[in-house]
UniProtKB/TrEMBL annotation, chain A:
One of its GO terms (cellular component) is periplasmic space. Residues 1-24 form the signal peptide. SUPFAM superfamilies: Periplasmic binding protein-like II (SSF53850). It comes from the Bacteria. InterPro entries: SBP, Sperm_putr-bd. One of its GO terms (molecular function) is polyamine binding. Pfam families: SBP_bac_8. One of its GO terms (biological process) is polyamine transport. This is Spermidine/putrescine transport system substrate-binding protein.
From TrEMBL, chain B:
InterPro entries: MetI-like, MetI-like_sf. It is found in: Cell membrane. This is Spermidine/putrescine transport system permease protein. Pfam families: BPD_transp_1 (PF00528). Keywords: Cell membrane, Membrane, Transmembrane, Transmembrane helix, Transport. The lineage of its organism: Bacteria, Pseudomonadati, Pseudomonadota, Alphaproteobacteria, Hyphomicrobiales. It comes from Mesorhizobium muleiense. It is a multi-pass membrane protein. The keyword Cell membrane applies.
Amino acid sequence: MRMPKLTAFLMATAVFASALVASADEVHVLNWKGYGADEPWAIAAFEKATGNKVVNDFFNSEQEMLTKLRTNPGLYDVVMINAAFNDQAMAEKLIQPIDVSKIPNYADISADKAGSPMLARDGKVYGVPWVWGLTALAINEKAFETPPTSIAEMWNEAHKGRVTIRDDAVEAVQFGAIATGQNINDIKDMEAVKAKLTSLMPQIKTFWSSENDWNQMVASNQIDIGTYWSGSADRAKTHFKLPVSLVIPREGAVAWLDAFSIPVGAKNVAGAEAFINTMIDPKFYVEWVTKVGAPVSANAKAVAALPEDAFNRKVMGDPGVAKRIQFQAPISDAQREAYLALWQELKVNVK
Amino acid sequence: MAGQVATGARSGLRSALPLLVPAYLWLTVAIFMPLSAMVFFSFMTELPLSGKAWSFTLDNYATFFAQGLYRTLLLASLKLGLEVTLWCVVIGYPAAYVLAKVFRGRSREAIFLLVILPFWSNGLVRIFSWAMVLREGGILDTALNAVLPFKINIDLMYSYPAVIIGLVHSYVPYMVLTCYLTLQAIDDSLIEAGRSLGASRLQMLKRVIIPLSMPGLVAGAALIFVPVVGSFMEPRILGGRTGTFYGTIIEDQFVAVFNWPLGAALSFILLAVVLVILALASPVLKRAA
């Protein structure tokens, strides 16, 4: 089982070594695979408009992204960083301040996202908000006559063995924090979270790890309810025609914000600014939502350009929702490991 | 093999060298070097790649002993390895016997091909196809309910039996192959001699066939037991909430929290435990073989 990791490590080292040379009119972008920035139609349009050539590289975890930035100074021009990791990247001097006056669409970003304290230090902007979304609940419509409103539905005896939760320690612990009425970024009573999650375990069918897992379980009618990402629930309903609907429980939900940054030593800062501007442009966003399905844009004008009944406008834009969601703040490595230890213990005790 | 070469004449070694170099070069580059890097990592506080200060420590190994969780999981994984190996013997040995001693010619080739076939498909594909068969409303459930006059509910998916089924399916060809080779080598005249001296079928099996095919059984068992103990893909996909094993938590350390040092330390503890088990078992097995 060690071999694939090692091969991956060796390959990665080889890639690092060979990819150190970047030319000036190329824009090197580092992002998740299949996450907007690598859509062929978007790249073609950008290359035609600006004359820059886009070179995409991908990461599979935030830790991998940080490692790639550390080991390849000067290679990347644009990097997509979850706002909760922006602080760490800035503290390690991996990203540089952004001159937002060069990004015309920045002015349309909604004030609460642009003003996020996670993306700015000493009055300088280190991240341009791109999209945001929720980790909330989704239900199998066949199992409910009226959608539930409370997170407590996950613990309802009626759904025993038909509940799913993502196999992710941080998400599980933060979900437990919401269920026990705590602040996800400042969990005071970890024992309560543990007890709450322990009592959830007998309800669970399985842990999901990818969108495909979730959709397959609904398609074969194996689950009633589970944690799910807002954008994925939308995609399941509109693109895969599955009986899935998102529930944002009255107790709240975990929200995340993704932003673009420019690494220290980027060779093509002008190209990077142009690329970021395109990514937050309403035209790109509407096309992305229609063709592929996407999270909610941080650009207010981009959301407004969607049809009135679009999920990302109607449900996610509801002011009542904004009031009860909690944005994820940075998590230290020690916390992350403590969460994983707790999560593993819960999973072992259920055996 | 190396010993034989060394005791051979000097000229023998020289002529053997070009034949050995590719294999040993490959082993050095692909296995020895990365593995030593992992040993090195397992004694570190931080991965040097992360750019943080690091130092040498034994903490990663101490973590294993400090938390009962890892011991519980290691025992669960060892039990899984034993169960899967046992089922592979139960299913694979008779099949190998029939292949080696009953079928001849074309029909043997055809049956042999059927045994090897799962080997040629991708492991992940096999696991996902089991997922389609085992779940409620899946192929097995639907087929049985179509035939049986009464209603039964089969939902094996996301359970311990599902993990066993998936792993046995993946590994049973090893058992068939190793047992087939030793069974085929048994001289038919020995069997005829036994029979002419009045041995019953059971006595033949116990006194002649099993002892002579023991090397194949042992080799097959070792080939299956070791990878099953460290398996993580099958438990994760088929096991559901009961699918946490030692292999899956090692994977978590590498993938979820990027704690390579702890992941590496846990891997080497597993390696040590497996080696100890094989060493303890070897006198018994040697005698049997």
